[in-house]
Specification:
Length: about 400
């Protein structure tokens, strides 16, 4: 039997704590999950995909938390792939999501190929695709491993499919990202209310671009990429299991750019809690601080200080605590495909050209068949011809400017 990947071995040991954290504090990742779902909503709207039929794969799904939330949002065709049995819910229990059990991600994706997914989403998982030299992360080999999986995913997706990777990201990625999607966190609202509020804000956003401007009111300062520092300086050093990462990099994006169409953005998605004690319990369980260690062995005081320093945990005026969390978003498409908007634009352009041709043929027809009527019909036809010629010119000018603008950006 094949030896289990080192990262999967780590997850097998910390799975119980991870699951307990998510179950005990179901609202903690509300903003993060809502943001991912908002992006998928925007994508489906843009492509004209229906929620009841669009095929979605949740890759490295863990406990299946994202799939469950997607199901609640009306997505019906969901398949989750998770290689670590200890992480995902008992597959024998009734689940709204179809689970694929596989020996490897590639084998799992082979199974997915039959479904030709339009969306493959992977949350907080790509950074675990690591190659090691001894116990050190081989960064180049890890990037190649990630790139290779991206290729395999693209291979099994529908021709207009999109891979959405949301994960920890290096500064190089975050600073290169063009958009920063921020979640609104209103003054004076408690945790459940925040969840409802976020859902409302997102429901009002018809597209990702709208999301950026609608959600631009983040309170308080966020330290530079604290999420990664937290893992490297605290979790890796102070837990029995440790934590290695190969976060998203600009280099990975450059590699993908050679074969695919990519887009990068970032999301600030603070985790939310009712109290500081809840926040600490969540962190302690989720990141494996309790593996092979009793709760009383943990110096809560010291850990609380580390959480504040690295993750910027803070109390909010209206009650509730949050900690800063910032993730990179990378979308990968096989090639440039037409969105619903571009298809609509093409139809309009074609319509104008057809009308113009019709008018010209009509004028020739009148000259040939009813020259006597030409003097009366000509001014009308001429006016329409000028209107359609003007529309054609305006459309071509708009396309030219759009194209220049894209190149310039
Ligand atoms: C941090 S969890 C995220 C799970 C889930 N997507 C979420 O957001 O809660 C990372 C997941 O990736 C899986 N994973 C880690 N390393 C992996 C590897 N090398 N191959 C396949 N899956 C891996 C783990 O089993 C784990 O469930």
């Amino acid at each position: 039997m094949a030896t289990r990947d080192l990262e999967l071995q780590r997850f097998a040991r910390k799975a119980a704590g991870y699951r307990a954290a998510l179950t005990s504090f179901p609202h903690a990742r509300a903003i993060e999950l809502s943001a991912v779902i908002a992006i998928i909503n925007a994508l489906c709207e843009n492509r004209g995909w229906d929620r009841t039929s669009v095929q979605i794969i949740d890759l490295m799904a863990g406990t299946g938390i994202l799939s469950s939330k997607l199901r609640e949002s009306g997505y019906l065709n969901l398949t989750a792939i998770e290689l670590c049995d200890e992480m995902h819910v008992d597959a024998t229990q009734a689940s709204p999501v179809e689970w694929i059990k596989a020996e490897s991600l590639v084998a799992g994706l082979e199974e997915c190929r039959k479904r030709r997914p339009q969306v493959v989403v992977s949350l907080a998982a790509f950074h675990h695709l690591i190659s090691y030299v001894g116990d050190r992360v081989d960064r180049l080999a890890s990037a190649v491993k990630q790139h290779s999986l991206i290729g395999q995913v693209c291979d099994c997706m529908a021709s207009d499919g999109v891979l959405l990777i949301v994960d920890l990201a290096e500064e190089s990625f975050l600073t290169a990202a063009k958009h920063d999607l921020q979640m609104r966190f209103d003054k004076g609202v408690g945790v459940p209310a925040v969840h409802a509020n976020v859902t409302k804000v997102i429901a009002q956003c018809p597209g990702t671009i709208m999301l950026e401007s609608a959600i631009a009111n983040w309170r308080g300062k966020v330290a530079v990429n604290p999420s990664l520092r937290w893992f490297r300086e605290i979790v890796d050093a102070e837990t029995v299991i440790g934590h290695k990462d190969m976060a998203l990099t600009k280099e990975l994006v450059s590699m993908c750019d050679v074969f695919f169409r990519t887009r990068c953005s970032t999301i600030r998605c603070p985790w939310l809690f009712s109290s500081e004690a809840d926040l600490e319990s969540f962190v302690i369980q989720k990141f494996g601080f309790l593996v092979e260690r009793a709760p009383q062995e943990i110096d809560r005081n010291q850990l609380g200080k580390s959480i504040k320093q690295h993750l910027g945990s803070k109390e909010h005026d209206g009650g509730g605590w949050s900690l800063d969390w910032r993730l990179g978003v990378l979308t990968v498409e096989k090639s440039s495909v037409s969105s619903k908007t571009t298809v609509d634009e093409d139809i309009l352009l074609l319509g104008i050209i057809v009308c113009l041709c019709g008018l010209l043929i009509g004028r020739l027809g009148v000259i040939a068949l009813a020259p006597g009527a030409f003097a009366t019909i000509e001014p009308v036809l001429s006016r329409f011809t000028w209107v359609f010629a003007g529309m054609l010119l305006a459309k071509l000018l708009q396309l030219f400017v759009q194209r220049r603008w894209k190149l310039w950006r």
